[in-house]
Amino acid sequence: MPALLAARPADEREVCSLIGHGADHIVGGPRECLWKYFNALRDFSEVTARCA
After folding, report:
1. 30, 15 in Cβ contact below 8 A?
2. What's the CA gap between 12 and 9, in Å, rounded?
3. I need a surface site. Which of 12, 25, 36, 39 has the fewest CB within 10 A?
4. pLDDT-based confidence at 26, cuts 50/70/90?
5. Range of the domain at 39
6. What domain count does the chain have?
């Protein structure tokens, strides 16, 4: 995940234009949204791995 975020453009407006689909309305910007998503996915994966 850090490598993915490091490779993105520094300008949030450029990131939003690359994503499209109303990304300019994401609260906190795309970076914050992606961090929350990937952290939730990681946490879910850890829990399911322990239950398997």
Report:
1. yes
2. 7
3. 25
4. low
5. 2-51
6. 1
